[in-house]
Design a protein that fits this description.
Radius of gyration: 26 Å
Number of helices: 9
Structural class: alpha/beta
Order of helices and strands: EHHEEHHEHEHEHEHH
Strand order of the largest sheet: 5-4-6-7
Largest sheet: 4 strands, parallel
Distance between the termini: 57 Å
Amino acid sequence: MSRLVSIAEAAKALGVSPQTLRRWEREGKAVPTEKTAGGRRRYDLAKLRPDLFRAEAVADRKTVAYARVSSHDQKEDLERQKKVLEMYCAAAGWTYEIVADLGSGMNYRKRGLKRLIDGILDESVGRLVLTHKDRLLRFGAELIFALCEARNIEVVILNRGEVATFEEDLAKDVLEIITVFSARLYGSRSRKNKLIIDGIKKVVEEA
């Protein structure tokens, strides 16, 4: 996206005088992007100062605060996450949007997560805020963080420690993995599969 300015504005952005810009034009160092019918020079700021242009573009992006829980019986925890995120973003003075998901940390197809990734890829997101890293994904969060780094998106994690429901969430995620693989091996309706799932559930409940 170009932004054409006069020679005076271009000189100010570069910290030089208009005379210097005219000299650079003669030397072929800084040629105007175009000239008007009246002969006035117009310079593209995005080319003269790409650093400033990128900084302005990033400043216009939105902050997304992402919350997630694994199951319906954790809805109260989801509301707590959202309130913590709202308070933090409001206190920081950010214009923010809350995106929430109800689903396993192993599920990469959650609606909110897909919406977040779309925002990262189209660079409409400038900052991602989480209460914990595991609220994003159980495995693979580092890939999302790498995308954020590549898109110059700030990642803020409020709590670097373990999630209060870490063991419960992990048990559910492990159960989901076992369910999927045993169904593939023995069929979703087989007696052997049912015995495996029942055994895993018993171990999880006892743990």
